[in-house]
Each structure stands twice: as structure tokens, then as C-alpha cells.
């Protein structure tokens, strides 16, 4: 269909403010059009008297910039519903260009809103037991990924949903994250922010440093990448002098130790409960346990030794006073049994 360039409008699901045009892409495409002419790499639909393009926004900008308002192009115009317009938009950049965090966030946000409004979906949060990685997955991540298809797997969508939620809570600076060059850098940045909990100003300072280090504008500190390196930079930005950095880092380390302790303690408690149940079953065979034959056997001696070592370890985990009180309690118990 022959259409005037000025009559084409963007995909209604593409918010240009949140899903910006990359000027480098426009320049590259403008050069290509100049050298080889325009190819029909724009797909559109007719709706409510307008011609909305599904993909080809950067080509459209290049044409609008360099061609006269009345310039006519021949493009395919097909019947496309809203769902297909979103899917085409989501996969356009993935196929031809490096996708940025901003594009990922906007695509996931728009898709979630569309599914909720048009399909009436209720997203139920669940944990996926098949995942070995320690990430929270939900029904909404699964349904969005299934709807978009292509490279939009559940893992990518789940990470984007986490960041969107963090934006809404004011924990994560949206502008800083979306200025980063890759999804990997956005993931590492988010993880570092969750650990350090820096101000938005500190996030902005570090985001600029990351971008400059990647572009070669700043070679003083080398390329800044990886969660732990970003954590270090956020600490520096958040705390101006070394003493503040040291104290803040020590506080963070204590928090990590506390979380590890609680996790380990829960695991030990569950195991001890299991051992206690086994010992209670073993008490039914006390006549064998105290017999001379068993006491002199290698298994009997090993059991006695292990129980003694277990008691010693248990005492070492208690305070001196609690340990002394425990010994006294055992003494009283033994006296009563003899009586």
C-alpha cells in the first residue's frame, strides 16, 4: 500500500518517552536508505482511520527527518490485533539491535497491563521448584513470557518485574538503571543496590561511571562491571570518607553473616529434630544398648564417642553460665535416677 510518510503514526503500545528512539540507529538506517534506497521494512495496520506501524520506528524517524512531508512509500498493511502489535514491538529490537534495560522494562510493563486489562488475568505468586537459581518466580512472569515468546523467557521477565517493583517503591533509580548499556549490567546494578541500599544520588553517580568506563571515556579505574565491583562503587559514592565506608561495609557484612546464621540455624534445627526422633526410636532397644556385648563392640564405642563429642560441641555453642547450668541439671538427673 502506498502511504505518505507524514500519515504514519507509532505503535500505540510504544510510549516514546519510556521507549526512546536511539539516534545512533536512526543515523545508521538513514545512511543505509541513502545508499540502497528504502526497502519495505515497516509493517502497519489501519485502525480508526489511522495507519499505525507495528515495527520500523527508527526507519520512520529517518524518513521523516530526511524526506519531504509528502514523500510516499510502499509498505505492507495488514490486519493486526492489539496482541500482535505488542508481540511485534517486543521482538523487533531483539532481532536486529542490542536490547537495553529501558526497552525491557517498558515491554514487560505494557504487556502486563495489556494482559490484566484485556484478558482479566489474576497473577498468583508462586515458587517454581524446578529452578535451581535462587530467584523468585511468579505466575505473572510465566504468563508474560509465554505471551511474548521468542527470547522473552521467564528469567528475563522475572528480573524486569523485580526492577519495576523496586522503581515503584523508590528503592531503585529508574533513570540510572535505564542508562546502563546491557541487561546484565542492569541485573548486577539491581543486586548491588539491594545489598548496599544507597541513595538515588549515589546510584546516579555510579551509573554515569559505569557508562563512561564501558564507552572508554574513563580508563582511570578500568571497566566497571560485576555485582561486587558495583557494590564497592556504590559504597564509595554513598560514603565520602574511608571511615564511613569501613563502617558501612562492616555493617553490611554483619547483616550478611546474620542472614547466613539464621539460614544455617534453621537447617541445623531441622536435622536435630530428625536425629532426636531417631534416638527416641533407638531408646526402645535400650536393653541391647547397655549390654556388655554391645558396649565392647566397635559400633557401641563409636556411638558413645559421637554422643560425647556432640554434647561437647553443644556446650561450646552455649554461654559459660548456660553450660554450667546444663551440667548441674544433668548431675541432678543422674542422682534422681540412682535413687
Throw out a few tags for this protein.
339 residues, mainly alpha, Conserved hypothetical protein from pyrococcus furiosus pfu- 392566-001, ParB domain, three-stranded mixed β-sheet, two-stranded antiparallel ribbon, 15 helices, 5 strands, 65% helix
How would you describe the overall organization of this protein?
The protein is mainly alpha-helical and 339 residues long. Among the domains are: 1-81, Conserved hypothetical protein from pyrococcus furiosus pfu- 392566-001, ParB domain (Alpha-Beta Complex); 300-339. The chain has helices at 23-36, 57-66, 82-96, 101-119, 139-148, 154-169, 174-178, 183-196, 200-215, 227-238, 242-282, 286-289, 292-296, 298-316, 320-338; strands at residues 2-4, 8-9, 43-47, 50-55, 72-74. Strands 2-4-3 form a 3-stranded mixed β-sheet. Strands 1-5 form a two-stranded antiparallel sheet. A hairpin with a 2-residue loop joins strand 3 and strand 4 (50-55). Helix 4 crosses helix 6 and helix 5 (139-148) crosses helix 6 (154-169). The radius of gyration is 32 Å and the shape is elongated. Residues 129-136 have low confidence and may be disordered.
- CATH topology-level fold name of the domain at 1-81: Conserved hypothetical protein from pyrococcus furiosus pfu- 392566-001, ParB domain
Instruction: Show unreliable segments.
Output: 129-136
Sheet with most strands: strand arrangement? 2-4-3
Range of helix content: 55-70%
Oligomer status = single chain
Mind telling me the CATH class of the domain at 1-81? Alpha Beta
What is the rounded Rg? 32 Å
Strand content: 5-15%
Mean pLDDT over the residues: 82
Distance between the termini: 105 Å
Largest sheet: 3 strands, mixed
CATH homologous superfamily grouping of the domain at 1-81: Conserved hypothetical protein from pyrococcus furiosus pfu- 392566-001, ParB domain
Number of helices: 15
Q: What is the ordering of alpha helices and beta strands?
A: EEHEEHEHHHHHHHHHHHHH
Q: What CATH architecture of the domain at 1-81 do you see?
A: Alpha-Beta Complex
Q: Tell me, what's the shape? A: elongated
DSSP summary, beta strand count: 5
Structural class: mainly alpha
Amino acid at each position: 500500500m502506498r502511504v505518505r510518510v507524514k500519515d504514519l503514526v507509532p505503535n500505540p503500545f510504544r510510549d516514546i518517552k519510556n521507549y526512546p528512539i536511539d539516534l545512533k540507529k536512526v543515523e545508521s538506517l538513514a545512511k543505509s536508505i541513502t545508499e540502497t534506497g528504502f526497502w519495505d521494512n515497516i509493517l502497519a495496520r489501519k485502525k480508526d482511520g489511522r495507519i499505525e506501524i507495528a515495527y520500523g520506528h527508527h526507519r520512520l524517524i529517518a524518513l521523516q527527518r530526511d524526506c519531504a512531508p509528502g514523500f510516499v512509500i510502499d509498505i505492507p498493511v495488514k490486519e493486526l490485533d492489539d496482541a500482535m502489535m505488542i508481540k511485534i514491538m517486543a521482538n523487533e529490537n531483539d532481532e536486529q539491535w542490542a536490547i537495553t534495560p529501558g526497552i525491557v522494562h517498558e515491554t514487560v510493563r505494557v504487556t502486563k497491563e495489556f494482559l490484566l486489562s484485556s484478558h482479566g488475568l489474576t497473577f498468583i505468586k508462586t515458587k517454581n521448584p524446578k529452578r535451581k537459581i535462587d530467584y523468585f518466580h511468579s505466575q505473572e512472569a510465566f504468563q508474560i513470557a509465554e505471551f511474548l515468546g521468542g527470547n522473552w523467557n521467564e528469567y528475563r521477565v522475572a528480573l524486569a518485574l523485580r526492577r519495576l517493583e523496586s522503581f515503584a517503591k523508590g528503592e531503585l533509580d529508574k533513570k540510572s538503571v535505564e542508562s546502563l548499556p546491557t541487561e546484565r549490567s542492569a541485573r548486577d546494578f539491581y543486586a548491588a543496590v539491594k545489598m548496599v541500599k544507597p541513595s538515588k544520588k549515589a546510584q546516579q553517580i555510579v551509573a554515569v561511571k559505569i557508562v563512561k568506563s564501558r564507552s572508554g571515556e574513563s580508563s582511570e579505574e578500568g571497566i566497571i562491571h560485576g555485582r561486587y565491583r558495583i557494590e564497592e562503587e556504590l559504597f564509595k559514592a554513598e560514603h565520602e570518607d574511608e571511615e564511613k565506608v569501613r563502617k558501612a561495609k562492616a555493617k553490611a557484612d554483619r547483616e550478611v553473616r546474620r542472614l547466613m546464621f539464621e539460614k544455617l540455624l534453621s537447617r541445623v534445627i531441622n536435622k536435630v529434630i530428625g536425629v532426636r526422633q531417631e534416638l527416641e526410636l533407638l531408646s526402645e532397644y535400650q536393653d541391647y544398648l547397655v549390654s556388655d556385648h554391645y558396649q565392647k563392640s566397635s559400633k557401641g564405642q563409636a556411638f558413645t564417642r559421637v554422643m560425647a563429642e556432640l554434647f561437647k560441641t553443644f556446650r561450646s555453642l552455649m554461654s559459660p553460665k548456660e553450660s554450667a547450668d546444663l551440667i548441674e541439671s544433668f548431675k541432678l538427673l543422674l542422682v534422681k535416677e540412682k535413687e
